[in-house]
Amino acid sequence: MVTVKDGERLDDLLGRPGKIIQSDDVFSFSLDAVLLAEFVWVPIQKGQLVDLCAGTGAIPLFLSYRTKGTITGVEIQSKLVDMANRSMAVNRLEERIRVVEGDVKTAATQLGHARYDVVTCNPPYFLANETSLRNQNEHHTIARHEVLCTLEDCIRTASQLVKPGGKVAFVHRPERLLDILTLMRAYRIEPKRMQLVYPKAGREANTLLIEGSKDGKAGLKILPPFVVYEEDDTYTEAMRAILDA
Fold first, then answer.
1. What does each C-alpha distance from 230 to 35, 39, 174, 200, 236 come to in angstroms?
2. CA 99/CA 89 separation, integer angstroms
3. Which of 6, 37, 190, 215 is the most exposed place for a label (fewest CB within 10 A)?
4. Taking the alpha carbons of 73, 44, 214, 126 in that order, is the dihedral positive or negative?
5. Distance from C-alpha of 161 to C-alpha of 86, rounded to nearest angstrom
6. What is the pLDDT of residues 22-48, one digit of tens each?
7. Nearest alpha-carbon partner for 152 in 123, 118, 131
8. Which residue, 114, 106, 122, 217, is CA-closest to 166?
9. What Pfam families does the record tag this protein with (predicted)?
């Protein structure tokens, strides 16, 4: 019997049959996790995957519906690690998914270099010096701001973890695109696929999905725009297709 502690709740996984333990005290998963898990290439039958900045384990859970491989999440906050692993137990996925407590900056030393087929990451979006955007809640601040790891830390470690030819995928904000492209190439991850996500048609993009290949050949494909909501705030057909898969 898995314990759901005081202040926690058992939430649905947005169209999936599974559940996830969440709490108002920590940063809950958003559509970004759903979109990244759907966007990234994954080996279907077997393979080893890593999710950096795993939080409460949403991306590993969503990935589990697309791959039978093993997934390791890395999360620095012990409270979130505990919640994530109890969520895996709720979904009877303990044998395929584990979330370990660890620092992104040293994750390759902890898990092993060049061992993984896929690395995903939903990193903190905001720079540490953006004090006006800081949250008072420590868990929220760590999840949203580059206080414990930077974008470069995430990309460098992803490059260290992934095998040559393996895939690395990030979800971020469009305004960081040039930083992401520059850092990916600096750490031998060749950008191969990119997609911009729009809240509604005619609006500015607010999310960036990008995937690269370790030591891959040059050649970046720009996928069609992805729109999340119709004008009446219902999900678009494309978004419903993901949630109903």
1. 17, 21, 21, 6, 5
2. 11
3. 6
4. negative
5. 25
6. 998 888 899 999 999 999 999 999 999
7. 123
8. 114
9. MTS
